[in-house]
Design goal:
binds uracil, Transferase, Pyrimidine Nucleoside Phosphorylase, Chain A, domain 3, globular, Aldehyde Oxidoreductase, domain 3
C-alpha cells in the first residue's frame, strides 16, 4: 500500500480538494493501526465536517472502514436476511417488537445493536432489564438462532468495522458527529459488514433526533440508501417524526413492558403503526409476501419474542424491575396537548438513571418516564402528565427541570401530523 503524509491529506480536504482512493485506504488503515494520530484524524474530521465527501470518496471511505474488520456471512441461512436501523429517538423501542414480528413472517433478522449514550436509549440496555438475558453471542450461536427462531438482537462484536469504533469515539469528543457523510459511512459500514441482504433505515427527524430538519434527514437518508445500494444491499429508508417521543414510555424496563403490550395486540397506536410500517418495508425488501398485522394478531410474533428471549438466557415471563421511587408532573392548564418535546423527555429519563453519561457506566433497569397524555389528547389542569421512576430519588429534581416546558397545552386540538413522512428508495 502506498504511504501518504497525513498533514498533506488534511490540507487537501481543508482547502476543499478530493481525497484519492489510495489516500482514503491508507488514512483509514493507518488511523486504525495508530500510525495516524488522534489529533490528525480530529483535524481531518473537522475538515470533512466543513467540506464534506463526494459520492465516490464516501463509498471508498465506507469500504475502507469495512476492510479494517471482519465481514459476517449469512449465506448459509435458509431464510432471507433483513435488518433495520434507526438513527435514534426518544422512546424508540421499535426494534423489540419488530425483530420477532418480521422473523415470525419468515425472514432472518440479525439485529446487531448497541448501548445508549446520551438522551436516546440503547436496545441492549432495554433488553438487559429482562432477568437473565444475555447480549453477547458468538457468531455460531447467532447463526443457529437466526436459522431456528429467525430473530437475534445482540451486541455487535468489536470485529465489525473497528475503524468506525475509534473514529466515532473521536468525533464524539471533537464536535464532529453531526456530519452527514461521516454519520452515513459510520452506520453503513457496520450494516454492510454485518452481511444483511436487505436493510430498512428509520431516519428520525425533529426535536428529539440527530437531524432536526426534514431536509437534513432527507439528505442523510438519501446518502445512506446510496451507499447501501452501491454495496449491493437492498436499502430503503423511511423518514419518521421525532418531534414528540414515541409511545408512552422512555426507560429500559418500561420500554420492554410497552413492547410486550404491542406483541400482545395492544400498546400505543404510534408504536404499532411504526412497527407495522417498518415490518412491511422489511418484508417487501426480503421478497416475503406476508401481512405482519396477521402475525401480530395471531400471537405468532409474541411466540417468536418469547423464543428469542429464552434462547439468550432470559425469562420472558419474569416480572420486570420496578423503580423504588416515583413522582409525578401535572398539567398546568386545561386544554389539548399540542406538543411534547422529545429531547426534554429523553433528558429526564436519562437524568433519572435510564442512560449513561460515559461509556461503560451502569444504567438503572427500572428508571425512566411514562407520559399519560400524548399530542392531540385533551387534559385538565392538575391531571398527571408524567410519572418519573428512579431508584435514586436525589435525581428527581433535575429530571423535573428537564420536563419544564416540555409539554405545550392550547385551547384547540392540533392537526394530526403523520408519523411516516417520506419513503426514500434507490433511483
Ligand atoms: N450512529 C452511528 O453509528 N454513527 C454515527 O456517526 C452516528 C450515529
Amino acid at each position: 500500500m502506498s504511504t501518504f503524509d497525513a498533514v498533506d491529506l488534511i490540507r487537501t480536504k481543508r482547502d476543499g480538494g478530493r481525497l484519492t482512493d489510495e489516500a482514503i485506504d491508507w488514512l483509514i488503515r493507518a488511523y486504525t493501526d495508530g500510525v495516524v494520530a488522534d489529533e490528525q484524524m480530529s483535524a481531518m474530521a473537522m475538515a470533512i465536517f466543513f467540506r464534506g465527501l463526494d459520492g465516490s470518496e464516501l463509498s471508498r471511505w465506507t469500504n475502507a472502514m469495512i476492510a479494517t474488520g471482519e465481514r459476517m456471512d449469512f449465506s448459509s441461512l435458509s431464510r432471507p436476511t433483513v435488518d433495520k436501523h434507526s438513527t435514534g429517538g426518544v422512546g424508540d423501542k421499535i426494534t423489540l417488537p419488530l425483530a420477532p414480528l418480521v422473523a415470525a413472517c419468515g425472514a432472518a433478522v440479525p439485529q446487531l445493536s448497541g448501548r445508549g449514550l446520551g438522551h436516546t436509549g440503547g436496545t441492549l440496555d432495554k433488553l438487559e432489564a429482562i432477568p437473565g438475558w444475555r447480549a453477547s453471542l458468538s457468531n455460531a450461536e447467532m447463526l443457529a438462532q437466526l436459522e431456528s427462531i429467525g430473530a437475534v438482537i445482540c451486541a455487535a462484536g468489536s470485529g465489525l468495522a473497528p475503524a468506525d469504533k475509534k473514529l466515532y469515539a473521536l468525533r464524539d469528543v471533537t464536535a464532529t458527529v453531526e456530519s452527514i457523510p461521516m454519520i452515513s459511512a459510520s452506520i453503513m459500514s457496520k450494516k454492510i459488514a454485518e452481511g444483511t441482504a436487505s436493510l430498512v433505515l428509520d431516519v428520525k427527524t425533529g426535536a428529539g433526533a440527530f437531524m432536526k430538519t426534514h431536509s437534513d434527514s432527507k439528505a442523510l437518508a438519501e446518502t445512506m440508501v446510496g451507499i447501501g445500494t452501491d454495496a449491493g444491499v437492498n436499502t430503503v429508508a423511511l423518514i419518521t417524526d421525532m418531534d414528540a417521543p414515541l409511545g408512552r414510555s422512555a426507560g429500559n424496563g418500561l420500554e420492554v413492558a410497552e413492547s410486550v403490550e404491542v406483541l400482545a395486540g395492544g400498546g400505543p397506536s404510534d408504536v404499532v403503526e411504526l412497527t407495522l410500517a417498518l415490518a412491511r418495508e422489511m418484508l417487501a425488501c426480503a421478497g416475503i409476501d406476508a401481512d405482519p398485522a396477521d402475525a401480530l394478531a395471531s400471537g405468532r410474533a409474541m411466540d417468536t419474542w418469547k423464543a428469542m428471549i429464552r434462547a439468550q438466557g432470559g425469562d420472558p415471563e419474569a416480572p420486570l424491575p420496578v423503580a423504588r421511587h416515583t413522582d409525578v408532573v401535572t398539567a398546568e392548564a386545561d386544554g389539548y396537548v399540542t406538543g411534547m418535546n422529545a429531547m426534554g423527555v429523553g433528558l429526564a429519563a436519562w437524568r433519572l438513571g435510564a442512560g449513561r453519561a460515559k461509556q461503560g457506566e451502569p444504567v438503572q433497569a427500572a428508571a425512566g418516564v411514562t407520559w399519560h397524555a400524548a399530542v392531540g389528547d385533551a387534559v385538565r389542569k392538575g391531571q398527571t402528565l408524567f410519572t418519573l421512576h428512579t431508584d435514586t430519588p436525589e435525581r428527581m429534581d433535575r429530571a423535573k427541570e428537564a420536563l419544564q416546558g416540555a409539554v405545550t397545552i392550547a385551547d384547540a386540538a392540533p392537526q394530526r401530523r403523520p408519523l411516516v413522512l417520506e419513503r426514500i428508495s434507490a433511483g
